[in-house]
Amino acid sequence: MRQFSRQSRSGRILLGAGLCALLLGASGCSRIRTHQGYQVDKLLVDSVQPGIDNRASVEGTLGRPSFVAQFGDQDWYYVSRDMRSLAFSNPKPVSQTVLHVRFDAAGNVVAVDRMGLEQVAKISPSGDKTPTLGRHRSLFDEIFGNIGAVGAGGMGGAGGGSNTGGGPNGS
């Protein structure tokens, strides 16, 4: 009877260790959710009105933009994105909001546009090489291909001209 209780105790310990290992292994496969950029507050965004607000009131209401237009400061962008990934896989966008506030020359709001996830471009490269234009040269062609080309006639080197005199016409 004593041996039976030892075996059942060791069986319970082994079962407990197996369950702990299973839980630790499953926790590594959890979903990871991240937020990037501006925290969108729908009430604040809806309060920005064209013709009423200006740069100062928009900055007071929404804060500094995520980025300003490249040429001039007539366009402000507030970008917000939620991403999701599983363990070590590539993250995928779940939702995205781009708030585009346009100003006129006087600094008054002209329009407020909202764009969503439909603006995300999915790029899938083809193959492991980038196609390029031009000649296909091997490593040895690149290293030894210019031997003899230095100073060749017509290449701006010293060896191709028939100008032997001191003047511009050879005199």
UniProtKB/TrEMBL annotation:
InterPro entries: BamE, BamE-like, BamE_dom. GO terms for biological process: Gram-negative-bacterium-type cell outer membrane assembly; protein insertion into membrane. Keywords: Cell outer membrane, Lipoprotein, Membrane, Signal. The keyword Mitochondrion does not apply. One of its GO terms (molecular function) is protein-macromolecule adaptor activity. It holds the Pfam family BamE. It comes from the Bacteria. GO terms for cellular component: Bam protein complex. Residues 37-111 form the Outer membrane protein assembly factor BamE domain. This is Outer membrane lipoprotein OmlA. The lineage of its organism: Bacteria, Pseudomonadati, Pseudomonadota, Alphaproteobacteria, Sphingomonadales.
